[in-house]
Amino acid sequence: MPIDARYDPSNVFARILRGEIPSERVYEDADFVAFRDIEPAAPVHIILVPRGQPPTSPATISEADTDWIGRMVHAATRIAAAQGLAERGYRLVLNCGDDAGQTVGHLHLHILGGRALGPVA
């Protein structure tokens, strides 16, 4: 997926948010929804997505987005703790573009843990 600022309301995360695609939700609030990844890269792999039409990737965020991005990271730490990951550790990942493995043009954060994850690169 090339980095593109144009939001596609038919992307898979938008469809999950609308309830058109089922998901195993583990967290919801007024701003975010978190659900288990259907192709997990770790024993615990949760996707945290903002509601609405967020930027399509980290490359397209603006200074106006910093408040909710901070709330998103804070929500991710609470979710990680609720999943029992806080004691041993976890990884938060934002992918940006094809080379980083981003496949959905809806900004999202991966919460990974449940085993030693090894080096990032």
Description:
This protein is 19% helix and 21% strand. With 121 residues, it is α+β, with helices and mostly antiparallel strands. The protein has one domain: HIT family, subunit A. A five-stranded antiparallel beta sheet has the order 1-2-3-5-4, covered by helices on one side. β2 and β3 form a beta hairpin. It starts with 11 loop residues before the first helix and ends in an 8-residue tail after the last strand. The mean pLDDT is 93.
Q: Quick recap of the structure?
A:
The protein is of the alpha+beta class and 121 residues long. It has one domain (12-113): HIT family, subunit A (2-Layer Sandwich), CATH 3.30.428. Helices cover 19% and strands 21% of the residues.
Strand count, sense and barrel status of the largest sheet are:
5 strands, antiparallel
Total strand segments: 5
Rounded to an integer, what's the Rg over CA atoms? Answer: 14 Å
Output the CATH homologous superfamily. Answer: HIT-like
Principal-axes geometry comes out as globular
Mean pLDDT: 93
Number of domains: 1
Ranges where pLDDT stays below 50 over 5 or more residues in a row are: none
Total DSSP helices:
2
Secondary-structure element series: HEEEHEE
**Strand numbers in spatial order across the main sheet:** 1-2-3-5-4
CATH fold description: HIT family, subunit A
